[in-house]
Write a structure and sequence with these properties.
- With 212 residues, the protein is an alpha/beta fold.
- It has a domain of 148 residues: 3-Layer(aba) Sandwich (Rossmann fold), CATH 3.40.50.880.
- The chain is 36% helix and 10% strand.
- It contains nine helices and six strands; from the N terminus they run H-H-H-E-H-H-E-E-H-H-E-H-E-E-H.
- The strands form two sheets. It has a four-stranded mixed beta sheet with strand order 1-2-6-5, with helices on both faces. Strands 3-4 form a two-stranded parallel sheet.
- A hairpin with a 4-residue loop joins strand 5 and strand 6.
- Helix 1 packs parallel to helix 9.
- The relative contact order is 0.16.
- The mean pLDDT is 93.
Length: 212
C-alpha cells in the first residue's frame, strides 16, 4: 500500500510516474495475499507491473523532468537508499527546482543524508514525521525490534535539524501527528504505511498550487 496507492493516485491526477531504485530493474516489492480488491487491482495492473519490474537506475533519470519525489517505506531505505549519493543528489536537485518531497513510514530514513547546494541538510528546519521508534522496538519483529537497523531514524533526523513531530501515544487515527504537512517547505510526511494515500493527496494539492 505504501507505493501502490500513491502510484495510482498520481497517475489518476494526470502525472507520469517513474520508479527509481539503486540498480534499476526489478523492485523489491513483496506482494500481499490479503491485498483486497482495491489494492490488488493496482498491483495487477499492466502499468504498475511494468514500472515495478523495470525501475530506473539513478543514471537514467534527468532531474529537470520531475516535479516531485515520493519515498515509500520499507527497510531497504536504511541500507540501499539512505547512502546512495546519486539518488540523494537527484532529490536535492528536484527539490531546489521547486519540487515536492513526500515520505511514508520508514521512507523518511531516505532523507537523512540529502544535502542542498547550501550544504545544509534537506530536513534542517523542516516539519516532518516518521515511523515512531517506540513502535519499532515494541512491535516490529521484522527488524528484530530495531536491533537489525543501522541507526535510530528518529534520533538521527533530529540531529540533522528536522522539526520532528511524533505521536506520543502512537495513535494512528490522530492525523495531527501522523500526517505532517509543511506547505511552506514543500514537504509532506506520514508516520505509517496507512498514511501513504493521504501523503499522495496532499502532495498533489501542493503540486497544483505550485503550478498555477
Amino acid at each position: 500500500m505504501e507505493i501502490a496507492y500513491p502510484f495510482q493516485y498520481f497517475i489518476d491526477n494526470g502525472y507520469d510516474v517513474d520508479i527509481v531504485t539503486p540498480k534499476g530493474g526489478q523492485t523489491a516489492i513483496y506482494p500481499k495475499e490479503y491485498a483486497g480488491p482495491g489494492l490488488g487491482k493496482i498491483q495487477r495492473s499492466e502499468l504498475f507491473m511494468s514500472k515495478t519490474r523495470n525501475s530506473l537506475s539513478p543514471n537514467e533519470v534527468k532531474d529537470s523532468n520531475y516535479v516531485a519525489v515520493y519515498y515509500p517505506g520499507g527497510y531497504g531505505q536504511f541500507f540501499d537508499v539512505v547512502n546512495n549519493e546519486l539518488i540523494s543528489s537527484l532529490t536535492a536537485k528536484i527539490y531546489e527546482q521547486g519540487g515536492i518531497i513526500g515520505t511514508a513510514g520508514h521512507g523518511a530514513a531516505s532523507l537523512i543524508n540529502i544535502k542542498l547546494t547550501s550544504n545544509k541538510y534537506l530536513v534542517e528546519g523542516k516539519k516532518i514525521t516518521c515511523f515512531p521508534h517506540l513502535m519499532e522496538i515494541q512491535s516490529m519483529w521484522q527488524s528484530n525490534y530495531g536491533k537489525l537497523l543501522p541507526f535510530d531514524m528518529q534520533e538521527v533526523l533530529v540531529k540533522k535539524g528536522a522539526n520532528l513531530i511524533i505521536c506520543a501515544n502512537m495513535n494512528k487515527t490522530n492525523k495531527e501527528c501522523t500526517l505532517v504537512i509543511d506547505d511552506k517547505n514543500r514537504m509532506v510526511t506520514g508516520a505509517f504505511a496507512y498514511d501513504a494515500q493521504s501523503v499522495a493527496e496532499e502532495m498533489v494539492k501542493l503540486l497544483k498550487l505550485t503550478t498555477k
